Amino acid sequence: MIVKYIDNVAFKKMLLGAAANLENNKELVDSLNVFPVPDGDTGTNMNLTVKSAVKEVNSLEKSTITHIANAAANGSLMGARGNSGVILSQLFRGMANGLKGSSKIDCKLIAESLGCASETAYKAVMKPVEGTILTVARETAEKAVETYDKYDDVCLFLEKLAEEAREALNRTPEMLDALKQADVVDAGGKGFLFLLEGGLAALKGVEIKQEKREHKILKTEDEVMEFSSENEIIYTYCTEFFIKNPTKTAEEFLSKIFDKGDSIVCVGDDKLIKTHIHTNNPGLILEIAVKYGELSKIKIDNMKEQFKERLKTSEKNREKKKYGFVAIGTGSGIQKVFNDLNVDVFLSGGQTMNPSTEDILDAVNNINSDNIIILPNNGNIILAASQAKEISDKNIYVIPSKSIPQGITAMLAFKEENDLGDNVKAMTDAVKDVKTGQVTYAVRDTVFNDMEIKKDEIIALSEGDIVSHGQNPEEQVLELVKKMVTEDSFLITLFYGDKVDKQEAEELEEKVEEIAEGCDVEIIYGGQPLYYYIVSVE
């Protein structure tokens, strides 16, 4: 049977099918990130962006094609995370413009809306790079415009477009040498293809079931926001942990703790059980849990204490400030550094979990100031921060900091007595004078810059490029310093992560001083996950 048109009902099903298909394949998309560092998050970012679009669509009272497309655009805009998520939100926005006022979608309108989507996405990126999701979307749209008049059946037309998207994706390694060396296709383009294939399957009547649903566990600080007074907090301690290789099922463990607190989440399989509970006796919970397996990633937060701190912050922010600051990063030590530099909101995010546009807007709105300076501290967050700037009523200035050291240096360049324009210029200029290195581990085998890197090897990155690899984090720091320090360098700062012993960091400081005699060397506890060390050279 020929399907000539897509109506509003089918259109909504296609969006839901596209979202479910991406959800089921997000880990595969994550794994395609070029660098083998443990921050492959393209699939996660795209998935969370699309889930925000779906949430908006599902809340609609009216479900015309225009309403659905606009809801998807608005939802994805607010939920956009990372560069891939922001680009995807712009594709939704362009698609909505192309479908505006339509009561049914034929092959011609598919072509026009895809063209609008691609054009809008390209305009949103200052320096578009070919060999990415932009290329896959553009070449698919171009094929649609060239061939739509040859088709009456939208299913057959979309099948052809999916083939074109697949071929365009397979060509991405020829456009980006990094993809070719790593022997992968572009992650964002792969996510785009999963969306297209999911939408097509739904149009054909194939139900795509999500293979697994995540049990959402809110961050403790977000849970505390739900309370209006300290008396409402019946159970003081928010307790989270994993049980590795459990001897019993999650259900059996749950039966032992269900009456010892509230807000309980206990899920898992025969390899790992994840537990979250509010309780007045975290020690008792852990005592029970340890009988069921090895405990890992134990986290206990005092919610009453956090509630009091929130009240203090709220009181402080009632007085209108001339300037406000939002810094993004992860690690308790790094947060302390930014707090000491008078940053108003430290937004948790960076590697593996980028804050959404809405997260950034919420942070901005929590500061009682009309002039807000945002420090993204990650190249994958600058677009989302810029998108927040575009839709906020406040005067927002995004400093293009791509690393924690750059963000810290930018804050040090700020002078209260200077006017806003001079400060923004000084902070932006300061970022350019900082070189950043990172030491982490490879999550897969790969080849980069002709280096054969094995899974779990320690790798050193300078300005985002892998420059050396080996077996020891400290040795890789020394290799980094040798490559990064020049005769003009005067300061080296080592931020050590949550898996590094303080004594090891202090011993490394002495070794760095030996090979960089003309530089001052500082070590600071960053507490960042995933990265053993973040190295700053000025």
Can you tell me about this structure?
- With 538 residues, the protein is of the alpha/beta class.
- It has four domains: 8-203, DhaL domain (Serine Threonine Protein Phosphatase 5, Tetratricopeptide repeat); 220-301, Alpha-Beta Plaits (2-Layer Sandwich); 319-432, 3-Layer(aba) Sandwich (Rossmann fold); 435-537, Hypothetical Protein Tm841, Chain: A,domain 3.
- It is built from 20 helices and 16 strands.
- It has helices at 8-31, 42-58, 65-79, 82-99, 107-124, 133-147, 154-175, 177-182, 187-203, 220-224, 250-257, 282-289, 303-317, 332-340, 357-365, 382-391, 404-413, 420-432, 473-484, 502-515; strands spanning 237-244, 262-268, 272-279, 294-302, 324-329, 345-348, 371-375, 395-398, 435-441, 446-448, 451-453, 458-462, 465-470, 491-496, 520-525, 533-537.
- The strands form four sheets. A six-stranded mixed sheet has the order 13-12-9-16-14-15, sandwiched between helices. The protein has a four-stranded antiparallel sheet with strand order 2-3-1-4.
- It starts with 7 loop residues before the first helix and ends with a strand.
- The relative contact order is 0.09.
- The model has no long low-confidence stretch (mean pLDDT 89).
Can you count the beta strands?
Answer: 16
Determine the CATH topology of the largest domain.
Serine Threonine Protein Phosphatase 5, Tetratricopeptide repeat
What's the gyration radius in Å?
25 Å
Strand portion = 15-25%
The helix fraction, in percent, is 40-55%
CATH class of the largest domain: Mainly Alpha
